[in-house]
């Protein structure tokens, strides 16, 4: 799944914040990825393995994409 968080407009980010119902850790991942951190850096920050983070990221990306499709 290709989803480039750093390419989102501010309107799209605001939409995700308000409508995607991200849990706190999902929101933290979204924010860190939006800042341009790598999976390795984020995994360390969230105390997760890189493999676990990639699985987690798919869940977050799915929520984000679903929100953008429905509300954009």
Describe the model.
There is one protein chain. The protein has 72 residues and is mainly alpha-helical. The protein has one domain (9-71): Arc Repressor Mutant, subunit A. The protein has 4 helices and no strands. The chain has helices at 10-19, 24-34, 39-46, 50-71. Helix 1 crosses helix 4 (50-71) and helix 3 (39-46) packs across helix 4. The longest helix has 22 residues, at 50-71. The chain is globular, with a radius of gyration of 12 Å. The two termini are 19 Å apart. The model has no long low-confidence stretch (mean pLDDT 93).
Brief descriptors of the model:
72 residues; mainly alpha; Arc Repressor Mutant, subunit A; 4 helices
**Which H/E pattern describes the elements?**
HHHH
Broad shape: globular
Task: Quote the CATH topology.
Answer: Arc Repressor Mutant, subunit A
Largest sheet: none
Report the average pLDDT across residues.
93
> What proportion of the residues is helical, as a percent range?
over 70%
Q: Which stretches are poorly predicted, pLDDT < 50 over at least 5 residues?
A: none
Q: What is the helix tally?
A: 4
Structural class by secondary-structure content: mainly alpha
What is the count of distinct domains?
Answer: 1
């Amino acid at each position: 799944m290709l989803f480039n968080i750093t390419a989102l407009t501010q309107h799209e980010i605001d939409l995700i914040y308000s409508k995607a119902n991200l849990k706190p850790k999902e929101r933290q991942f979204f924010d860190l990825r939006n800042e341009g951190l790598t999976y390795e850096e984020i995994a360390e920050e969230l105390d997760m393995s890189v493999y676990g983070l990639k699985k987690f990221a798919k869940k977050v990306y799915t929520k984000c994409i679903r929100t953008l499709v429905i509300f954009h």
